[in-house]
Amino acid sequence: MNTQAIREKFTELYGTEGAMYASPGRINIIGEHTDYNGGFVLPGAVDKGMVAEIKFNGTQKIRAYALDLNESSEFGFASDADAPKEGWAKYIFGVIRELQKRGAVISEGFDTVFSGDVPLGAGMSSSAALESTYAYAMNDMLGLGFEKMELARVGQSTEHNYVGVKCGIMDQFASIHGKAGHLMKLDCKSGEFEYVSFDPEAHGYKVCLVDSCVKHELVGSPYNRRRESCERAVAAIQKNHPEVEFMRDAEIEWLNDVIGEITQEDYIRALYARQEVDRLREACAAMEKGDYETAGRRMYATHVGMSVLYEVSCEELDFINEVARECGVTGSRVMGGGFGGCCINIVKADKYDNFVATVQKKYKEKYGIDCKIYPVVISDGARKLC
Fold first, then answer.
1. Which of 13, 48, 98, 363 is the most exposed place for a label (fewest CB within 10 A)?
2. Cβ of 257: how many Cβ atoms within 10 Å?
3. Which residues are catalytic?
């Protein structure tokens, strides 16, 4: 991350220097679309993220500059009526408003410049990194005293209330809580988590992302619709099992019992969500024993589920996944919300170079565009740089 460019722009715009904070993007080994279903996820923070320089300015305005977009925005923060028109600025505004809702006293505005190296559209959660940077910074600069999990909820609520995405907690949680050399097994229902040592190279493996460099724009809100499908399935199951709060709580046979009460679409969405809970548990247990082969098979099964049942893959991601199989890649699946973005891959070290070369060659031949390769480096979460 080029912090010098941020500092130079900040000084140019505001004639002073501020404090610098950073938060990372994330990968998720397995457990996709499970966070809002009360299940488990297994993310890790990466070495790419967002960096912001910030200094309070003694006014009632926030003056923000997005270095990568060469765009600026100025807005108040006294009420929701002050919301900026720029989409990226709504993330900063939403974080401030959500902190205020939780009792934070933010008596003056600030000047800020931010930049990021999280690949946009790759499913590595650049938006969560942006939210986490400002939530962590405000908590630190003002001594607000919020726990890390509450800062993650601030970011999640920003998505819900100011961006319109009814996301789960995983992305913000991983960005705030990241720890180098570790994944985080998060129970999205209870909020409890544990760090899981993750050192694939010690076992002879490498991890990389293959970015399809496509993003299919879909009509409506496909993310929200899938969440609603699962919620309708839960409502039907609750008639016989009122203790069920999320799909994670249900047995698959309970879902089968209500197949006549919900649509086929709702059924297959909920089935995927419930099966993914089991796959994550099995993959996590395997990796803790150094059994990456079993974990890899669960990743392939997740890809099938996301493609066939949850229907969030796309032709290009399915192609990358198939090339991975052909190259003997241990585990591969679509990562993130879907409809484009990346596949995450666990590859035997002696097969890595061949896989990278093969997938780049075949992808270019089939689609006429270059896919991108991102080696995965598991890194620390939100922090102050200087």
1. 13
2. 16
3. 171
Task: Go through the domains of the chain in sequence order and give each one's CATH number.
Answer: 3-198+379-384 (3.30.230.10), 200-375 (3.30.70.890)
Q: How many Å apart are CA 43 and CA 47, to the nearest integer?
A: 13
Inter-residue contact 345 to 353 (CB < 8 Å): no
The answer to whether 35 and 174 have CB atoms below 8 angstroms apart is no
3-state class (DSSP) for residue 227: helix
First vs last C-alpha separation in the chain = 14
Tally the residues of the chain: 386
**Inter-residue contact 23 to 175 (CB < 8 Å):** yes
113-134 pLDDT, tens digit each: 999 998 777 778 899 999 999 9
Kindly tell me the number of DSSP H helices and DSSP E strands found in the chain: 11, 13
d(CA 301, CA 341): 19
Q: Compute the C-alpha angle 106/111/112, nearest 5°.
A: 110
Question: Contact, 306 vs 338, CB < 8 A?
Answer: yes
